[in-house]
Amino acid sequence: MKQTINALLSRLRMKQLQLLIALDEHKSMHKAASALSMTQSAASKVLHELEDMFDTPLFERSKTGMIPNQFGHSVIRHARLLVTDLGALCQDIADIRSGKGGRLAIGTIMGAVPDVVVPILNWLHTRQPNLAIEVVEDTSRRMLTLLDDGHLDLVIGRASVALDTGKYLYQPLRDEPVSVVVGYSHPAMPDENLSLRHLKDHRWLVYPKHMPMHTLLEREMDSAGMTMPSNQISTASSFVTIAILQRSNDIVALLPTDVADFFARHKMLRILPIELTSKYQTFGIVTRKGGATSPAADQFIQLLRDRNMVH
């Protein structure tokens, strides 16, 4: 590479970073330039400067537009992080001046919502009413991507699903027990000696193959001498899971026990008395290694540790 880090930083400008992001979003030099109120020739010059800095092309021209190559993807990802961090800095300064309290973006797996996330959110809201909080509920893998891109301050989930776990700091919080559930209108089943084999005629609602809960169900099926059903419905959405179970008398699923308890109390699900043999999954706090966290994120993390940390 032509530039040392100091030389690169001395030449890098915010407009260049914004152009990279705009090109990634619009796939067109003309549209990207228009979005940034630049002429197309000026935008082309900025891109040429960037490619000269990194001593490599960053985009490929195709019928569908300008597509970032592997170098471009890397530079764009870091450009988004820099722009997000600078935006957060400006927002933090404005919030401090106005007394609004700042912003906190949290990603969480479904199983951590009822008894881990919600109590802390309520506590923070009463003590910091001007703190703006965004909560994203999704799979760990998808949320780690949002964390990488700077859209989340922290994730409550699993770092083990990442392709490169070395990028993250992981602090385990608690185990995640799992229950077998059916819709509330499902006919009653015997409480004694109930096992997965009694559900052989049911249709299963399962998690996608890349998720730990899918692997857990496969192990349980194998232990019971069963195979995964071919007519399964696959979803990672808690809303879809609950909605389908409520409307069916022959579909069964796995849910984190804390979530299942919540919906069972509201008479939306029934928890079947089936004891699973697999070891419980553990989830924890995931942050970017080497990344600075905001005061609000630090406080949230400390509250998580104090109330939930695995010993």
Give a verbal description of the structure:
Pfam families: HTH_1 (PF00126), LysR_substrate (PF03466). InterPro entries: HTH-type_LysR_regulators, LysR_HTH_N, LysR_subst-bd, WH-like_DNA-bd_sf, WH_DNA-bd_sf. GO terms for molecular function: DNA binding; DNA-binding transcription factor activity. Keywords: DNA-binding, Transcription, Transcription regulation. Residues 12-69 form the HTH lysR-type domain. There is one protein chain. By secondary structure, this protein is of the alpha/beta class. It has 3 domains: 5-80, Winged helix-like DNA-binding domain superfamily/Winged helix DNA-binding domain (Arc Repressor Mutant, subunit A, Orthogonal Bundle), CATH 1.10.10; 101-175 and 282-308, 3-Layer(aba) Sandwich (D-Maltodextrin-Binding Protein, domain 2); 178-278, D-Maltodextrin-Binding Protein, domain 2, CATH 3.40.190.10. The protein is 45% helix and 20% strand. It has 11 helices and 12 strands. The strands form 3 sheets. A 5-stranded mixed sheet has the order 4-3-5-12-6, with helices on both faces. It has a 5-stranded mixed sheet with strand order 9-8-10-7-11. It has a two-stranded antiparallel ribbon with strand order 1-2. The two termini are 47 Å apart. The model has no long low-confidence stretch (mean pLDDT 86).
